[in-house]
Amino acid sequence: MQDDQPVKPANILNIVATNQGRLPLTQEMPVAKPLSPAEVAELMGAGYVVVDARSTAEFGSGHIPGAYNVQMSSLEFEQRVGWVTPDDAPIILVTNTAEEAQRCIFNMAFIALDSRVAGYLDCGMEAWVEDGRHVEQVPQIDVIDLKTRLSENGLQVLDVRDKEEWEEGHIPQAHFMPYTSLVPQLDIPAQIDKLDLLPEQSIAVTCATGKRSSTAISILRRNGFKHLYNVIGGMEAWEHAGYEMIDAEGNVCNI
Known about the structure:
CATH topology of the largest domain: Oxidized Rhodanese, domain 1
Strand content: 5-15%
Order of helices and strands: HEHEHEHEHEHEHEHEEHEH
Number of domains: 2
Strand order of the largest sheet: 1-5-4-2-3
Structural class: alpha/beta
Distance between the termini: 30 Å
Shape: globular
CATH superfamily of the largest domain: Rhodanese-like domain
Number of strands: 10
Number of helices: 10
CATH class of the largest domain: Alpha Beta
Helix content: 25-40%
């Protein structure tokens, strides 16, 4: 899985182009353009990608099929967008308000991502639904339900945190792959095919708090995985509940 390979800096190609003067920095306040549901659908058909910047819960309750969920509440919002979206793909934002869309594009300007933003879905998911367009959902489960289902029906667990977090403590039955490894990183191909999991399996995805896991689920959905559950509260909630965790050597580390 090339565990020792460093993750590329987010949006590295644009950053290099900016530093070399081939891509000018935005000199004025970047502005996102409102797009109708029909315009969004047409642009998606032309290869544009959707970044849904709403919360994990909002994304889970209903989102545009194929959208990436990268929460604007994350302190790493723009970096995460740069990590998970294709380097050359134009971006459409989904937020709750126009003001939130403008905040997203402003933050994205710090790593030269603003130039890739084609616009945002005007009036958000409400407009998409009112236009009669299809939505997908992601079931959310808490750690109590996860613990029960692990012992009763063999639900699989995928931990998408960083390697250091995993080694400090994880669920004994869990599989591991950082969410950034689920997509190509510069000259390193996506590692999804190395997961010891099948697209038809039921998989609970966890991270530290439930944000990166939702991002990972949005990536896995784009790659044919359908039966995915986001773990609310993530490993922080699991540890707080006093459930067993093991470290990198397989030793119980929290009891």
